[in-house]
Amino acid sequence: MTQEIQKIKKGLHIPQLEKDSCGVGLIADLKNRPTHEILDSGLTMLENMEHRGACGCEQNTGDGAGILTQIPHRLFQKVFERAKIVLPPKGKYGVGVFFFPKNVEARAKCDQIITKYCKDLDFKLIHTRQVPVDNKNLGKTALDSEPHIFHLFFKTSGFNNKGLERRFYLLRTLIQKHIYEEFEEMRDDFYIASLSSKTIVYKGLLRAIQLRTYFKDLGQSNFETAIVILHSRFSTNTLPKWKLAQPFRCIAHNGEINTIQGNLNWWDAREKHLELVSKDQPQLTKIFPACDPYNSDSGNFDNVVDFLLRASRSIPHSIMMMIPEAWQNNKHMEDHKKFFYQYHDSVMEPWDGPASICFTDGTLVGATLDRNGLRPSRYIVTEDHRLILGSEAGCIDVDPSIINKKGRLQPGKMLVADLEEQ
Q1: pTM value?
Q2: What was the pLDDT predicted at 4?
Q3: What's the DSSP call for residue 51?
Q4: What are the CA-CA distances from residue 36 to residues 106, 277, 316 (Å)?
Q5: Which residues lie across from 255 on neighbouring strands?
Q6: What are phi and psi of 314, to 5 degrees?
Q7: 244: nearest Cα among 316, 292, 196
Q8: Distance between CA 72 and CA 90 in Å, rounded?
Q9: Cis before residue 293, ω within 30 degrees of 0?
Q10: Going along 30-86, which residue ranges are E strands?
Q11: Is the peptide bond before 247 cis (omega within 30 degrees of 0)?
Q12: Are the C-beta atoms of 200 and 69 separated by less than 8 Å?
């Protein structure tokens, strides 16, 4: 154990062993039609999985809850109209969800570093908005560690959407890395929950039933999305924190990575090699180390998925690399799939453990199970082109007469929907 980790080790708690067992789900409009109804249904699913989450010694302090959605462009149009600022077209700007420390001097240090990297990476900060919240129903533990939550809006020019997402990834990771390295005490106080031109995260140290009322944005009728990924956290061997609530930037995870220490060691070893051979995208190596020993197993899994996504792999490709099927002795598997797994077996070791994972990049949305199928996931597809998947059946009421298809994910299998293909 490194000296840095020992500094924040408290009692018998070991940060590297952060794990959780939770409620997870998704709802998506397969025609990619953003509506408030999809958001409302996602929040209802989350509230119906309240029993899958947990709370501490206070009934009004949860282990964590949150949602990941598409950027609510119409909501932000109204925000910019009130501020008398012109909002760039959809997809031409990015929104960051920043958790800032409440200390004024610490906040000023963060702002200086954000300004520095905006200049370095040719971004312009066009608006800063304090996220409206209602914290009157939160418990003391949640209130004592509650950050100041802000939306920061950025724009740049000269990049297509794919290149823009990669540059937002660099901006986020470099800012966070600099602050954590220079100000060790801010590791729990400063955090960027998301920074993207496609997706946004609303999460916190909340119970599932508190999310809707805590974030006032979620009650606005012009908050529209075609995707909601949701998560209610039941943390095990962990100290719940605002930053460890899920979803993360790409995934929501129910389960645990039992091989996490080996995965982190192997990834660290490979980063040394990547620094030597990364000629195609040398900027990506600036963010190393991609994994964080202070993060949970789910958080580090998300960090690696995020890195692979910015390194030009699709999100299903990345997930299949990290959670492969049981392919070695499967005589019924097609050769092309077996060759895929065989090749990537030499690139990355499996991140093994019971897992049900929902994922999205803002366009592709899906879910997968570990190869032993030790976490349940059931799904339905309706006549009005909705895909609904959850940790259990019945997480939202649906008229049986409009269900076109229903089933459960099989061990090692993946369900993917491309909303642009429709």
Answers
A1: 0.93
A2: 47
A3: G
A4: 37, 46, 27
A5: 20, 355
A6: -75, 165
A7: 292
A8: 9
A9: no
A10: 65-70
A11: yes
A12: yes
Separation between Cα atoms, residue 73 and residue 223, nearest integer Å: 8
- For residue 105 the two structure tokens come to 């001097």
- In this prediction, residue 159 carries a pLDDT of 62
**How far apart are alpha carbons 238 and 151 in whole angstroms?**
28
52: burial class by Cβ within 10 Å (0-12, 13-18, 19+)? buried
**Integer Cα distance of 29 and 46 in angstroms:** 17
Would you state the pLDDT for residue 58? Answer: 83
CA 322 to chain centre: 16
- Smallest CA-to-CA distance from 374 within 255, 228, 251 is with 255
- Tell the residue number behind the tokens 């609510």, with chain if given: 72
Annotate 203-213 with b (16+ C-beta within 10 A) or e (fewer).
bbbbbbbbbbe
At position 301, the amino acid (one-letter code) is F
Q: Are 131 and 151 spatial neighbours (Cβ–Cβ below 8 Å)? A: yes
pLDDT, block means (10 residues), the chain with 422 residues: 48 54 91 98 94 78 94 98 96 97 97 97 96 96 96 83 86 97 95 98 96 98 98 78 96 94 94 71 87 92 96 95 94 95 94 95 97 92 97 92 96 96 78
The answer to whether the beta carbons of residues 248 and 358 sit under 8 Å apart is no
| Strand arrangement, sheet containing 65-70 | 199-204, 65-70, 227-232, 23-29, 386-390, 378-382, 403-408
Q: Taking each helix axis from N to C terminus, what angle separates 335-345 and 315-322, rounded to the nearest 10 degrees? A: 70
57 assigned to active site: no
The pLDDT of residue 54 is 74
- Report the DSSP beta bridge partners of residue 243: none
The pLDDT value recorded for residue 16 is 55
User: Which residue carries 């039941």 as its tokens?
Assistant: 234
Residues 6+ apart with CB under 8 A from 129: 79, 83, 150, 151, 152, 153
Query: What is the C-alpha separation between 141 and 205, in angstroms, rounded?
Result: 9
Taking the C-alpha atoms of residue 180 and residue 183, their distance in angstroms, rounded to an integer, is: 5
Query: One of 22, 55, 358, 395 is an active-site residue; which one?
Result: 22
* Residue-level pLDDT at 5: 45
CB-based contacts of 84: which residues, under 8 Å, 6+ apart? none
* Phi, psi at 242, each rounded to 5°: -60, -45
- C-beta of residue 389 within 8 angstroms of C-beta of residue 379: yes
Alpha-carbon dihedral 349, 64, 368, 353, rounded to 10 degrees: 40
Residue from 57, 62, 69 nearest 95 by CA: 69
